[in-house]
Structure formats: structure tokens, C-alpha cells
Amino acid sequence: MKEFFEAIEYLFVDILLYPYDIFRALELENWTGASIVNWLFMAIGFVAFFYWMKELKKYNDNNEEDRDPKAHSFLN
């Protein structure tokens, strides 16, 4: 049973989380390089947000939504 848990430890520590060890070592030399993953995620989030707002505006301009207060059953 001990080998099973050691295999799980090996999988997570030595394989799946290894890239984070690289970023941690890189942080001591170059903060921007270590934070590039965070910057990429933020850029993807901003692009997705603006795309979603553009789509909502398109549907709003076409008046495709029923804006009657009784249009939704939970507003009865």
C-alpha cells in the first residue's frame, strides 16, 4: 500500500507539478519571465470578456430578448 501512495507522490511532485518548479527557480532571476503564464491567462480573460460583451451588444441591438417582466417564470 505504501508503494501506491509513493507512486501518487511521484506522479504529482516529479511529473505534473514539475513546470512550477521551473517557474519558481526562474523567479529568482527574472520576475516577468516567471509570471508570463499569469499574463497569458489575463490576456485570454480580457479577450473572452470583450468578445462576450460584443455578442451581448449584438443581441441587444437586434431586440431578440423578451424584456417583459413576466417573461421569466421566476419573476411571477
* Largest β sheet strand count, sense and barrel closure: none
* E-strand count: 0
Helix fraction bin: over 70%
Please, how many helices? 4
Mean pLDDT: 87
The rounded Rg comes to 24 Å
β content, as a range?
Answer: under 5%
Topology pattern, helix = H, strand = E: HHHH
Envelope shape: elongated
Estimated structural class: mainly alpha
Uncertain segments: none
Describe this structure in words.
- By secondary structure, the protein is mostly helical.
- It contains four helices and no strands.
Q: Could you give the topology of this structure?
A:
Layout: H1 2-16, H2 18-27, H3 31-34, H4 36-61
Features:
mainly alpha
Question: What is this entry, summarized?
Answer:
This protein is mainly α and 76 residues long. The protein contains four helices and no strands.
